[in-house]
Amino acid sequence: MKKFIFLFAFCITVTNLFAQTDPIQIKKEGNDAFNAKNYPVAYAKFSEYLKQTNNQDSATAYYCGMAANEIKKYPEAVTYFDIAIEKKFNIGNAYARKAAALDALKKTDEYVATLEEGLKVDPNNKVMIKNYSLHFLKAGLAAQKAGKAEEAEENFKKVIPLNHKSYKTNALYSLGVLCYNDGANILKKAAPLANSDADKYAAEKEKADARFKEAVDYLEEAAKVSPENENVKKMLPQVKAAMK
Q1: Topology, domain 35-122
Q2: For this UniProt entry, which residues form the secretion signal (predicted)?
């Protein structure tokens, strides 16, 4: 009789073990934990479920990536968002969240590349537009402050194609100011030549005017995008006056 009871208990234990590792049950527990914002448990359950099902569930991979981001498992988040991207699940947001994980890892080149790839797929994604624009506006301002005008110009130009009024205006205005300052510096350096070498001064004046013309073009485009912008309104007459 004792032997029978032992075998019966053993069967119950084995049955419970298989129930606990059933993929459907694990996924349910992951969903419950995620909805309760218990991200450590959600990540553990989702990652185990995906492991058992060979990463076939794109939606769960996406939410597993979200849970990973929440608990600062950023390399793992990148892996799961890549699965979602490959399977085209919520692809724009998957790119945006993957980029956020890369940013947290301070992998700047990969961060920018991911945003660029994502914007090709989902050009109106607000999160990616914001992050991409702010990255290059800040980079442009930093380069300008360091006296690297060409690098600053390249950074500002990255923002212009994006569909966002404020960021686009900021980039165009920054380019206008950059070109104006460059033209003004050319004229300042050429000033001593005005009386000593008229031809050389004229050549430098032509270069300065070309930069002023670029400034006007950028500022007029900015005025079309944001006609109410006070900075643009003030800057345009100043640049035009410098061309006289």
Answers
A1: 1.25.40
A2: 1-19
